[in-house]
Amino acid sequence: MDLSGARTLVVGATGVLGDALAGALRSEGVVLALAGRSAPTAQDDEPVFTFDALDLERCAAVVDEAADALGGLDLLVVAIGVAAFGEKAETDVVTEHLLTVNAQAPMAFGRAALPHLTESGGTLAMISAILADVPTPGMAAYSASKAALSAWLTATRPAVRRQGVRVLDVRPPHIETGLADRAVAGTVPDGIKPGSDVDTLVGQVLEALRADRRTVTFDLRAGEYALG
Ligand SMILES: NC(=O)c1ccc[n+]([C@@H]2O[C@H](COP(=O)([O-])OP(=O)(O)OC[C@H]3O[C@@H](n4cnc5c(N)ncnc54)[C@H](OP(=O)(O)O)[C@@H]3O)[C@@H](O)[C@H]2O)c1
After folding, report:
1. What are the DSSP calls for 179-214, one per residue?
2. How far is ligand 1, taken at its centre, from the CA of residue 73, in Å?
3. Where in this chain does the entry annotate a coiled-coil region (predicted)?
């Protein structure tokens, strides 16, 4: 897609990756709206929206409000998520939280965006995680939530392609953003090392968007990203 002038909503713009993606997209000349649990830092007259991912109706409403403010929508980027680790993550309450924030809320944003993206021939881009490809011990519920989102994106892609909408699933490895320190339960298992850094991931996402790719994945053995 042509990023210059693309009317774009970044959801999770208070987060490290969401904020970095918003900044990089702004530099490419997209027209931004930002959404976060609290108000993200915007520039100039960029519209800002707030939501809680546990309120799925509000998630959908944010998309319509942003599309109204931007005069349409060419790109939705979803970068919300929470982690949980170990035995403390394996409860019904924590699992429901992970599944809601990591899978159901992004799906609610995506469903609400599809009519707007169909109109513009736009792109739906979401960050799932390498855990969708490599479910990891000590992160069973977290892996399941990311696999759920990735499966939804994979199944949605061919269905919406006929309407001219592209779907990008970004599955990064561990990146030091502090996400693990903000886990809703448990602490990160020993020995999990960062596979990438924020700037490299952001560069890969922008390249994938420009080239209308379907996936950004990470090969742990080679230590390299691949665009699918
Ligand atoms: N960092 C990694 O190693 C890594 C690896 C693979 C995938 N990812 C994924 O990348 C995405 C961004 O993560 P990050 O590393 O940038 O972490 P982050 O800085 O903690 O960002 C997480 C974002 O999710 C938002 N969020 C969490 N719970 C929410 C809720 N109930 N309602 C609304 N927003 C909520 C946060 O809002 P607040 O600012 O209000 O907390 C924040 O904007 C996540 O989906 C994460 O799973 C990260």
Report:
1. TGGG-SBS-PPTT----B-HHHHHHHHHHHHHTT-S
2. 23
3. none
Question: pLDDT for 155-186, tens place per residue?
Answer: 999 999 999 999 999 999 999 999 999 999 99
Domain range list for the chain: 7-227
Give the chain's length.
228
The alpha carbon of 196 and the centre of ligand 1 are apart by a number of angstroms equal to 16
- Using an 8 Å Cβ cutoff, are 67 and 116 in contact? yes
Pocket test for ligand 1, best of 62, 80, 101 (most atoms within 8 A of CB): 80
Binding pocket residue ranges, ligand 1, CB within 6 Å: 12, 14-18, 36-38, 52-54, 79-82, 101, 127, 129, 172, 174-175, 177, 179, 182
Nearest CA to ligand 1 atom 30: 53
Tokens 């409000």 correspond to 65
Does the structure show a pLDDT above 90 at 189? Answer: no
Given 1.10.1060.10, 3.40.50.2300, 3.40.50.720, 3.40.50.300, which CATH number is that of 7-227?
3.40.50.720
